[in-house]
Automatic annotation (TrEMBL):
Source organism (scientific name): Sphingorhabdus arenilitoris
Keyword Ion transport: no
Source taxonomy: Bacteria, Pseudomonadati, Pseudomonadota, Alphaproteobacteria, Sphingomonadales
Domain of life: Bacteria
Name listed for the protein in its UniProt record: Ferrochelatase
Bilayer-crossing regions: none
Listed CDD domains: Ferrochelatase_C, Ferrochelatase_N
């Protein structure tokens, strides 16, 4: 049948994959960090304090003090390619696109900052993606990470008359392929050290303890990842939670306190890694590799190694490809 000449262009339907990570400032400057923190810390999934109470604290105190301090920390890890979180995520999307070929249109988005979830979903729709797999790159589920990505995607879809079909990647904290990727990466990293650690420490991003009481599975997911990995590798593993923010009680034990305790107890050679972060970022490169090293050595530690995240290395990309292909079943 002939298509009328005034009919809008018909695109061939495509399947898309949108990898999503947290996001990062555009530059290591107080003004860029302020913009980023304002968006991030105004998310009610991240700070669960009523806005009438929280917004005056955020705008009146935090956004006038923290950006300068955080910008200085970002400056220490910034590279000529930009923020580590941004370029690692871009590299993951590029590597996955190469692996998927014509089967899927692969892109990435950031929950806070650029490129936004809305911008990417709309661009993918314009380019003919009728089915999209949304893949938040958080192995362990939490309201503050996974759920807010889903909220944002559905907010975008709420503004569309003709929506695409959407699937989402479930948390993969106990998936044998994730545990296997961590094991392969860690074993190679440990074999490359010039010392044998007395202790291996898995540091996860922290959360207010209240979120556990309210039913967030994050704490259990972290614990289970560490237990499965420790069993798979046949070595004991310490677990801690980093990056405490604000005055509320956060999950215990804290990474900084744990580093001091281990050194003081005589475990003077330590390797630390961050299995909950799919790519290296401020929290791993500055807080663990720099600040953590300093804290451990101040407390008497003699040997410290930070072991990088999966990033876009082969084991991590094998894992992402496996998870994505599994979730695209029936769509490819
Ligand atoms: C209430 C505050 C915060 C909660 C809750 C929180 C949860 C959370 N965050 C990540 C992952 C990352 N966080 C990063 C930076 C970061 N996190 C907070 C606060 C909370 N995070 C702040 C204020 C910052 C910015 C830096 C600073 O000022 O200290 C990052 C790194 C971003 C980067 O640009 O490199 C990641 C990644 C998870 C996984 C999580 C809950 C499970
Ligand atoms: Fe955080
Ligand atoms: Fe931090």
């Amino acid at each position: 049948m002939q298509i009328p000449s005034d009919h809008p262009p018909i695109k061939s339907p495509k399947t898309g994959v949108l990898l999503v990570n947290l996001g990062t400032p555009d530059a290591p400057t107080p003004s860029a960090v302020k913009r980023y923190l304002k968006q991030f810390l105004s998310d009610r999934r991240v700070v669960e304090i009523p806005p009438l109470v929280w917004q005056p604290i955020l705008r009146g105190i935090i956004l006038n003090t923290r950006p300068k301090k955080s910008a200085a920390a970002y400056a220490k890890v910034w590279t000529d390619k930009g923020s580590p979180l941004a370029w690692h995520t871009a590299a993951q999307a590029e590597a996955l696109a190469a692996r998927m070929g014509d089967a899927a249109d692969v892109r990435y988005a950031m929950r806070y900052g650029q490129p936004s979830i809305e911008q990417q979903l709309r661009a993918m729709k314009d380019d003919g993606c009728e089915r999209i797999l949304l893949a938040p790159l958080y192995p362990q589920y939490s309201g503050a990470t996974t759920a807010t990505v889903m909220d944002e995607a559905y907010r975008t879809l709420a503004g569309m008359r003709w929506q695409m079909a959407l699937r989402s990647l479930p948390p993969y904290y106990d998936d044998p392929v994730y545990i296997g990727a961590l094991k392969t990466t860690l074993e190679a990293q440990l074999a490359g050290l010039d010392f044998t650690p007395d202790v291996v420490l898995a540091s996860f991003h922290g959360m207010p303890e209240r979120t556990l009481e309210l039913g967030d599975p994050y704490h259990c997911h972290c614990r289970k990842t560490a237990r499965l990995l420790s069993e798979a590798m046949g070595i004991p593993m310490e677990v801690s939670f980093q990056s405490r923010f604000g005055r509320a009680k956060w999950l215990d034990p804290a990474t900084d306190v744990t580093l001091e305790r281990l050194a003081q107890e005589g475990q003077k050679k330590l390797a630390i890694f961050a299995p909950g972060f799919s790519s290296d970022c401020l929290e791993t490169l500055e807080e663990l590799a720099m600040e953590g090293k300093h804290q451990f050595e101040e407390a008497g530690g003699t040997h410290f190694a930070y072991l990088p995240c999966l990033n876009s290395g082969e084991p991590g990309m094998d894992m992402i490809e496996h998870l994505v292909r599994r979730e695209l079943s029936g769509w490819l």
